Amino acid sequence: MFLGRFIQYIKFEKRYSSHTVSAYQSDLDQFLLFLNPPDTEASVSHPSNITHHDIRNWMVQLMDQGISPRSVNRKLATLRKYFKFLLQEGDITVNPTSRINAPKVPKNLPVVVDGDKLTGMLDGKLDGAEKIFTDDFQGIRDKLIIEMLFGTGIRLAELTGIKETDINFYENTIKVLGKRNKQRIIPLNTELVLLLKKYIELKKSENFNNNTLTFIVTNKGTNIYPKLIYNTVQRYLSNISTQNKKSPHVLRHTFATSLLNKGADLNAIKELLGHANLSATQIYTHNSVERLKSIYKQAHPKA
Q1: Which ranges of the chain does DSSP label H, i.e. alpha helix?
Q2: What is the pLDDT of residues 108-155, one digit of tens each?
């Protein structure tokens, strides 16, 4: 009952994305399963009976299972939101998460790929490589996925939600629906605009027998799905990078880092990325500092 009301609250009142709602549901299901394990007499029937000791014990169990501090913190954030809701609803009088300290998370620099190599691949100028992208529908579609992620910095979930009506060819911009259902407008470079138009023409010529509104589609014309995008990015980035991480988010990081290295204002990058706070964008300054250190060590005679 309590969980169901909370899920309805974040889904319809807070209007969280389906991905976020699913993550919250999964975290809370895991926590409730921990409190009420099968084949035991243990049972917590009301949220008011849950203590900070229960939450701390769950966090310890997660850490013992090898769950990273970052993931544990995300699950803790879910519990904070849940118990805050119950407190507001009058279902509990004390929030048990108020006495919980989050595990410390090591600060990892964003993983990026070489911008010049990425541009070379997209422009078909990789040394010693055969043609990377074919000229058929799938080849142009795959190239568009890479170009969109690198050229706009949008998230994977944002890419899957784009519709053709979101593209403004008169202004050369695209409208993106981000986290918390916040819309933002992102400019499109000339090459990306041309590629978008080419893709639209090819898509029409395929005569897909469906009415999907999703802009980027599968080879059968159905809605694109996250796994297909992830696999596409991983496959093509393997041509220019040997690092383990080759995800769509790496292209988002590369987009932001490239802008910063070219002198873009941090606040402008924040708006393009759709960050709620500048602190989330400032992590990219660390990459720039590391780049400057590397240049200094290579070029200065006393480095």
Answers
A1: 2-8, 18-35, 52-64, 69-89, 115-122, 137-152, 156-160, 190-205, 226-237, 248-261, 266-273, 278-281, 283-299
A2: 778 899 988 999 999 887 766 667 899 999 999 999 999 999 999 999
